[in-house]
Amino acid sequence: MNTSHDANERRYKRMRTQTEIVDQHATWIAVNPIQGCPKSCSYCFLNERGQTAVRPEQLAEPAETVDLLTASLYYAPDRPVALYTWTDVMALSKSRAHLTDLLAALAHKKIHNPIVLITKCPIPEDTLDTVANAHRSGLRIIVYLSYSGLGREVERGIQHEGLKENFPRLAHAGVPVVHYWRPAFPDSSTTGTMEAVFDWAAAYARCTVAAGLKVESAALPRLAGLWPELAPTPGVTTAEGVYPEAFWKFIHKTHQRQPDYPLFHTNSCALAYVLGQPDRFGVFGSDVCTARNHCPTTQRLRCEADNVHRPVTTNATIQTALTRRGHADTPFTFDRHRGEVVIHAALPTNTAAALTHDLGIRVRIARQHSDPYWSSGTAGALPLVIGDAG
Questions:
Q1: Which InterPro entries does this UniProt record tie to the protein (predicted)?
Q2: Which of 182, 201, 228 has its CA nearest to residue 383?
C-alpha cells in the first residue's frame, strides 16, 4: 500500500538530476560512474541536484568507466582524474567494491593519469589496503581528505573522528594525502577550531588546499540559514568562494605556524606540488601565486624553470586550441605580458578548463547563465570575504 512517505520519496527521486559520467572540471577530469550520496552535508552542491541523502546509483561498470574516460574528448594521459565527485565512495560497501574493481581496471589498461579520491568518511581497513596496494603498484593515487572542523549539524552523517584518523592511516601506508579545507563557516572559523584542524592535517598531509564556500543562487536561502550574512551580501553567488574574515586571515598566515608546510589557494598548484610537476594552469607569477599561496621555494624554482623553457604561446596556437574545442570563430585577446587569454564570448566552464589544460596558461571567459558548473576562478571569479567570525 502506498503511503504519504512513499509518495514524498517518489517525488524526491524525480528531482534527482545526473551529470555526465566523464566531464571536465576546473582542475581535473571528473569521472562519476556512481552518482548520489547517502550523506547530507548542508553546504553540498548535490543538494540542489536531489543527490544527497539518497542511495547511490551506479551508471557504469568499472571496465566501461575506463573506456568512457579514455574515449572522452577531454582525456589526455597526463591530466588529473578525480573519481566519484558526485558521491562519497567510502560511504557504502557497494561503492567501495566498485572502487576496488575500477582501480584494477585502470591498472589493467595502464592508465598513468594522476587519480584523485575525495572523502570525508572513515576508510575501512580493507579499502585502505586496496588503495595503498594500487598506489604501490604504480597508480598515481592521491587522497583528498575534506576536513574543516564543522559539526554534525552541518555535516550530517559524517563520523568526524574516523575522518581524522584517515590522515595518519593513509600517511603511514605511503598514500599521498592532501588536506581539503573547505568550506568554512563562521562557527568553524574560531581560532581554536582552525588551529586544531590545521595542526592535525599538517602533521600527516603533503599540503592543504583552502577553499571558500560555493554559493549557487538556488542554494542561497538554505545556506543563509547557516550563515545569515550571506543573504544581504552582494556578489556571493558569483564569487569564486565566500570566506569568513577570520578564516581568510588565518589561511594567509599559516606560514607563521608551520613554516615548512605548504598551503595553496589553487587546487592545481597542490596537485603539481604533490606530483613534483610545474604549474600547468598559468598560476605561476599571478597574484594568487605570489601573494596567497604558501609554496615551497623548490616548487617555485621548478615552475620558474619550466616557464623559461616552455614553448611560446602564440595567437596561432590559441586559435588551434579553440578550433579543436569546437569554437573556431570565437574572438579572443592574448595578453602576452599577463600570460592570459581572454575569450570574448560565453563558453561553458568545462570548455574553458579544457582550454587551460591545452594551452597551459590562464583562460578567462564570460560565464554562461545556464552553466551547470559553479563559479570558478577559471572563469575569472574572485573570492569574497565577509565580516568577522570573531
A1: rSAM
A2: 182
CA nearest 179: which of 204, 159, 150? 204
Give the integer Cα–Cα distance in Å for 236 and 243: 10
User: In the chain, what are the domains?
Assistant: 4-306 (3.20.20.70), 315-386 (no CATH)
Place of cell 606560514: 255
What pLDDT, on a 0 to 100 scale, did the predictor assign at position 388? 56
| 299-315 per-position pLDDT tens digit | 999 999 998 888 899 99
Q: Would you say 219 and 375 are in contact if contact means Cβ atoms under 8 Å apart?
A: no
Q: Give the Cα-Cα-Cα angle 355, 358, 359 (nearest 5 degrees).
A: 90
Q: Which three cell numbers stand for residue 215?
A: 554559493
Residue at 385: amino acid letter: V
pLDDT in the model for residue 346: 87
Q: How far apart are CA 329 and CA 275, in angstroms?
A: 36
Mean of pLDDT values over 156-181 = 97
C-alpha triplet 103, 359, 239: angle, nearest 5°: 80
* Crossing angle of the two packed helices 160-172 and 191-202, in degrees rounded to 10: 30
Check whether 101 has a pLDDT greater than 70: yes
Strands 57-58 and 34-35: antiparallel
Cell of 206: 603533503
Q: State how far the Cα of 268 lies from the Cα of 271, in Å rounded to an integer.
A: 5
Separation between Cα atoms, residue 232 and residue 47, nearest integer Å: 22
What distance, in Å, lies between the first and last C-alpha atoms of the chain? Answer: 53
Express each pLDDT in 119-154 by its tens digit.
999 999 999 999 999 999 999 999 999 999 999 999
Specify the pTM: 0.92
Taking residues 98-125, what's their average pLDDT?
Answer: 98
Residue 30's pLDDT is what? 98
Angle at 379 (CA atoms; ends 378, 382), nearest 5 degrees? 85
- Rounded Cα distance between 233 and 295, Å, is 32
Answer yes or no: are the C-beta atoms of 118 and 84 closer than 8 Å: yes
Q: What are phi and psi of 252, to 5 degrees?
A: -95, 5
Flag whether pLDDT at 7 surpasses 80.
no
Considering only CA atoms, which of 321, 208, 339, 322 is closest in space to residue 269? 208
